[in-house]
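Hey, can you fold this one?
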Amino acid sequence: SVAAPATGADAAASHAPPDAAAVARVQHEIKAARSSIFAVYGSDETSVKQHMAEGVKFYAAEGRQKIVERMLRAFAIRDGFAIAVGGMSDVAAHGNMFEESYPAVCEAALKPVFDAAAVPLTVRNMAMGGVPSYPNSVCMEDNLGADADVVVWDFRMVEIPSYEAGKKYGELYVRQAMMMPRAPAVMFKRDNVYLKDVPYAWEDGGVHVIDETKALNMFKKLKSPGLANEKFCEGQCTCPGQVKWHAGWKTQRFRGHHMALAYLDMFEEAMGQYLALLTDNGAPGPEDHRWDIVRQRTLEAPSVKLDASHALFASRSFRCAMTWTPRTGIDVVDLVDGPMNGWKHTHPSPRVAQGEAQGKQCHYRDSKRCVVGDAASHWIFFKIPNVKADGLLGFCGDFQSTEFGEYALIMVNQEEVMDKLTLWLEAKTLGIAAACFSVSHNVQPGDNVVGFRVTSGDLKLTLTHLVWEEDDDG
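Sure. Predicted structure:
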């Protein structure tokens, strides 16, 4: 028999390279984690295992190996492993308690295994209600986290997956993920049709799909006890968002288990490869170049047909300040240079404010707060730090009108730029109508000051993101 695994704290206490016994402890926990999940959905473990394998797809074997290698690296040098999930209200657990979201379930299922491996694990749920992947997709590092090893796309109800309508957003998501600090793999919760046409990302971007739909429907057909008597919340709750297009807690649990099993398979493969290294001259040490993570700050032109201005933000990486939460970076108001002068850091409407207040009772983390000014406001200035030479500055918001010259003044380093703005993409859902603009005119290396003022009319100016290209050497 195999000895029970050490705790994560005990394992982490030793800085020696993991040995065969450490691998055995992890393998023991992988087996136990699988058995625990399988038991929820039926007594026939073989049948459950077979059905749970449905819906997992890699576009290239090298893409799968990218994740296995990252897990192997984390185990060999005692590094962390992070999965960051971007998504919509269903992913944010609306209707249920936040802790019942499928990313939380996935983390709970994986944690004993990663603890046994002395690898700190994070499955970070960064979903927001009613918001598509853009514009947060140009703010990956400050939205999802610089430590992400896997980035998840789950905007299946707020982003059209069709080829023409979806590809410009979906490919942007993949490309911005590939330029993040740890060059993460990208997982999609649905096999969107455009993924077949981004072959450059299949290996380097580790593009893969973990779609629970077929497995979920099969277990429902089999009347699995793990899905019977579905409802919102395992206990009693009055969480907002209890509507038919949001999953109940058992479906959330199933998604989390399905996802966890896919990554358990990869972690098991990493353990096998580590044993092979031990047999063949030992595992490389922490300083070995095998474990280097190489970041791509820029990419070649995208495959989707975009005009020159679009290609700019699809091929460069950016830093951001955001009013929206959840996020890992700073708030837009953290960059205010001087007084707010009548601008407000607030919700876009009383209805949104009320909904978010109700959601906090169920521990929801998403918020659509923004910085809003009107004709009664005066100038507001933001100091943007460490901008690269020849870099872009940008801003995003939920704008009533994008004809800024008719009702607002916008300055970069004391020069007006309303007629020099470049529109990126626009995105509209029932929740927002977002747009982003960039400017290169009068942008200086280092700190830059951007100013906004509403000058006339009944229109308001609503800001949600400030965007800039960072100087790597600054």
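The first strand starts at residue 56 and ends at 58. Let me know if you want another pass with a different chain boundary.
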